[in-house]
UniProtKB/TrEMBL annotation:
The keyword Hydrolase applies. This is Alpha/beta fold hydrolase. It comes from Streptomyces flavidovirens. Pfam families: Abhydrolase_1. GO terms for molecular function: hydrolase activity. Belongs to the peptidase S33 family. It comes from the Bacteria.
Length: 277
């Protein structure tokens, strides 16, 4: 189904399951919802799961403007569309940051925040260089092809997809890189194309945000927050420490043998950590 925001942009959204309402916020920025497995896990455990593609992404209309505030407003449009007074928010990667900003803007509407594989509230410079090194190591013997594709001034859609699959394969843990490649291929199917404009504009904005101000704001949140990390995520998990320290009601679950998509590699443990209470 589609819904229309107050500025006229059409967003794709759907609901599955019955029970306590959960809205899922996918990563990116500029990507799309790949939460099929998460939706099934939560619906099987008594949740009404609400999924959506963010503005300009996936099945939603490819039109800006793109900003954190606009993303928060779009998330609230999803909540209103489904008639939800209060919700649990589950955000993954950039979506974890979006869910956190929504909770800061509308704390009375969030009963629980599930922060999965986020990168904290500190500057990118604190974690990004280590991430790049880990990424290159995890791509392994396919690194030359990834570098070749990344260096192209213009890529075809097929080349863009190939580059993303190679990069996303690094987000899965363990020595079996063929399995990681298959899981990344699944993420890229169907392929909707990365919105690089959305990615660039939102990332540029988040880089200007003050860690001190965010730390102070997070100290005022009263809903329970669970932070879920994959032990083998190539993004350093200590980047999330300052966020965990700022939150007054927080628990943290680290899943062994899991990377950036922990539900793919530790599904039972992930479900136990994030399922409705």
């Amino acid at each position: 189904m589609t819904l229309t925001t107050e500025d006229g942009v059409k967003l794709w959204a759907e609901r599955t399951g019955e029970g306590d309402p959960v809205i899922l916020c996918h990563g990116g920025p500029g990507l799309w919802d790949t939460f099929d497995d998460v939706a099934r896990l939560l619906a099987d455990r008594g949740a009404a799961v609400h999924r959506w593609d963010q503005r300009g992404c996936g099945r939603s209309e490819r039109r800006g403007p793109y900003s954190v505030a606009r993303s928060v407003a779009d998330l609230d449009a999803v909540r209103k569309h489904f008639g939800l007074e209060t919700v649990t928010l589950l955000g993954h990667s950039w979506g974890a940051r979006l869910a956190l900003h929504y909770a800061l803007a509308h704390p009375a509407r969030v009963t629980r925040l599930v922060y999965v594989s986020g990168t904290g509230i500190g500057p990118d410079s604190g974690w990004y260089p280590e991430f790049v090194g880990n990424l290159r190591a995890a791509i392994g013997d396919r690194l030359p092809r990834w570098e070749e594709l990344k260096a192209l001034e213009r890529r075809t859609e097929a080349e863009e997809r190939e580059m993303c699959v190679l990069q996303w394969s690094a987000d899965f843990a363990g020595p079996d890189r063929e399995r990681a490649q298959r899981l990344a291929e699944r993420m890229a199917t169907p392929w909707y194309g990365v919105n690089h404009e959305c990615n660039a504009e939102i990332n540029a904005e988040t880089r200007t945000m003050s860690e001190h101000q965010l730390h102070a704001a997070c100290g005022g949140l009263r809903m329970p927050v669970v932070i879920v990390d994959g032990e083998q995520d190539i993004r350093p998990r200590d980047a999330v420490d300052s966020l965990a320290q700022a939150l007054p009601d927080v628990s943290r679950v680290t899943l062994a043998g899991a990377g950036h998509m922990p539900w793919a590699e530790s599904p039972a443990e992930f479900a136990a950590a994030v399922a409705p209470r």
